[in-house]
Amino acid sequence: ISQLSWLDKEHKICYRRYMIITWYGQACFKIQSGDKALVLDPFEKSVGLMPPSIQADILFVTHEHFDHNNIKAIKGDYFLINGPGEYEVKGIKAKGIASYHDNEEGAKRGLNKLYLIEVEGIHILHCGDLGQDLLDDKQLEEIGSVDILMIPTGGFFTIDAKQAVGVINQIEPKIVIPMHYKIPKLSILELDGVDKFLKEFGSEDVTAQDKISIRAKDIEGEEEKTRIIVLKP
After folding, report:
1. What pLDDT, in 10s, does the model give residues 3-34?
2. Residue 163 has what DSSP assignment?
3. What is the DSSP string of 110-145?
């Protein structure tokens, strides 16, 4: 979505593009930037939720578990990113960073990728099913600066509310979007709800939103305190 705006005294016109973030439950997001759609971690219907029937230009999969890798549900001639490394696709820069799905270097649940994605000058980090208590120095160096952090908070299969706060304190993002927690109809009952995370973080008065429309200008200089945004699935 683009809007025209006057930017200087000479009345030169340029485009200010908004990025729209939508959450579908678990770790599945759609990031819309102009005519480009990025989709992350689509799930199968066995989780109890309806898989999103959406189109993607770039599709990210953090690991090969059924609630994160339902690529057949996604439409379009998309480019699939499912491994570590650096990518540049259709003007979008992304980096896959190796991590663990558990706190035993993958011995219990295997490997996981963190995806650092640059969209419209905004750096987004999607953590997939991160299971490490904390990130190590190498991972933090690869990640660098983060504007928006998508992080699991439900525990059991991933880090829990307290561990998520620890990782947030390591990364120091401007905005945090919690994910992978218990919601209505979800069949994975072992997960905690988002309230536990909000209480742990000290942001219990957050009101859930349908989606986010944001641009780089909106978060420039936003460094005093990390803001929590809860999305409705």
Report:
1. 333 333 333 333 457 899 999 999 999 999 99
2. H
3. -EEEEEEEEETTEEEEE--S---SS--HHHHHHH--
